[in-house]
Design goal:
- The chain has 13 helices and 21 strands.
- It is an alpha/beta fold.
- Strand 9 and strand 10 form a beta hairpin.
- The protein is globular and about 75 Å long.
- Bound molecules: cytidine-5'-triphosphate.
- Cytidine-5'-triphosphate binds next to helix 11 and strand 16.
- The site of cytidine-5'-triphosphate has 14 residues, from helix 11 and strand 16.
């Protein structure tokens, strides 16, 4: 992740959800960003600058008029240091002030002076959000290039349900990384990634599937997004959180995945087939539930599913995965050649910390000529970045 040296100015405003900004700040700091938190006057009624000070390891700005902080003398210093300004949570009040160019505290001065992208995550009462004056302010800011994330529908501070809740932190986090990566090495590229296992129906209740968690494919989709790519993620059923800023196409069967991949690759620069596609499916799925008491033993006749990677061809980089239990490298070299791939990622699924369901993977990346690059065990996100380094250099040569 290209986080080293990047600065996020985190504006915190008066909302009951201000405490959630601490979580965001902790996450960004852990990932190597420099987080400079700026509190408005009313934010301090809801969250503690001391918490942010400790979580970010940085001075926190609470006023423009305090001489002892690093930013106080030059009231636009933060606006110049920012790679992105994120206002989370953003109250109706701050949205109104920003829309009207008011600059009467450090946060409004910073936003008015910055050339960095500004992301706004609103949080307020649903009637305040729905009010035409707020909507006009939002439209005005959007027209000026401000990026809005949320609000979400859910339980509000008042106790009732409505649209106005600070959206999921995962989403705010994802959009921020996407915005920061806009000019990355994959900017302007369309990347299609498949993830998860497919489910092949036996009857309306049962299906044939496999142990794939989808984590590897989701990590690739996120990493590609963070490097500027427009990503389509064709996903089998998984419990992994959907990444923000990625177009997700949900599928169940190999047949549905084939259709979605053929459609998405019409304009693709690369296809990465990380999905564990079922190789066989019941030749005939029963339309009604198969009853145990009406049968002795049950024999299922299976037929082959379509080979998606084989069929998805065109002027784009094609990358396969080979999850093997024996003769890993030899099988993968055979596959890369047989399927005419640009790269294949081989792993031994029986190894500890590798393969299905884990957060780490130990893989070997093999090119079209059979040349292998063996990587040490690392997180799936790091594997994704290594793979994207290879794809990025292949795209440059195209
Ligand atoms: N794949 C595919 N369509 C299928 C099966 C697999 O597109 N019906 C893709 C997988 O997503 C993976 C690659 O092909 O990227 C290799 O999958 P794998 O199951 O290991 O290969 P197979 O060709 O099925 O070979 P084998 O079962 O003999 O190992």
């Amino acid at each position: 992740m290209a986080t080293k040296g990047k600065t996020i100015v985190l504006g915190i405003t008066g909302s009951i959800s201000a405490y959630k900004a601490a979580d965001l700040a902790a996450r960004f700091t852990k990932d190597g960003f420099r987080v400079d938190a700026v509190f408005t006057e009313s934010a301090m009624k809801f969250a503690s600058p001391m918490t942010l000070r400790n979580l970010t390891g940085r001075p926190v700005v609470t006023t423009m008029w305090e001489l002892s902080t690093e930013f106080s003398v030059e009231h636009v210093a933060l606006s110049e240091a920012a790679d992105v300004v994120l206002v989370a949570p953003a109250s109706a009040n701050i949205i109104a002030r920003l829309a009207n160019g008011i600059a009467d505290d450090m946060l409004t001065c910073t936003v008015l002076a910055t050339k960095a992208p500004v992301i706004i995550a609103p949080a307020m009462n649903d009637n305040m959000w729905a009010n035409q004056v707020t909507q006009d302010n939002v439209a005005k800011l959007k027209k000026r290039g401000f990026i809005f994330v949320g609000p979400a529908y859910g339980r509000l501070a008042s106790g009732k349900m409505g649209l106005g809740r600070l959206t999921e932190l995962d989403e705010i986090y994802g959009v921020t990384l996407q915005v920061l990566g806009k000019k990355g090495d994959l900017a302007g590229k369309n990347i299609v990634v498949t993830a998860g296992g497919t489910q092949e129906p036996v009857d309306p209740v049962r299906c044939l599937t496999n142990r794939s968690s989808g984590k590897m494919g989701y990590a690739i989709a996120e990493a590609a997004r963070n490097r500027g790519a427009a990503v389509t993620l064709v996903s089998g059923p998984t419990s992994v959180t959907k990444p923000a800023g990625v177009k997700v196409v949900d599928v169940k069967t190999a047949e549905e995945m084939l259709k979605a991949v053929l459609d998405a690759t019409k304009k693709a620069d690369a296809l990465i087939m990380a999905a564990a596609v079922a190789d066989f499916r019941p030749a005939r799925a029963s339309g009604s539930k198969i009853k145990r008491r009406e049968l002795g033993d049950l024999t299922l006749k299976l037929e082959k599913t379509p080979d998606i990677l084989e069929q998805a061809r065109g002027n784009f980089i094609r990358v396969g995965f080979a999850a093997e239990s024996d003769n890993v490298i030899a099988n993968a070299v055979d596959k890369v050649k047989r399927k005419g791939l640009d790269l294949i990622v081989a792993n031994n699924i029986t190894e500890k910390g590798s393969g299905f369901g884990t957060d780490t993977n130990r893989v070997t990346i093999i090119d079209s000529k059979g040349k292998a690059e063996e990587l040490p065990i690392m997180s799936k996100y790091e594997v994704a970045d290594k793979l994207l380094d290879r794809i990025s250099s292949l795209l440059k040569k195209k």
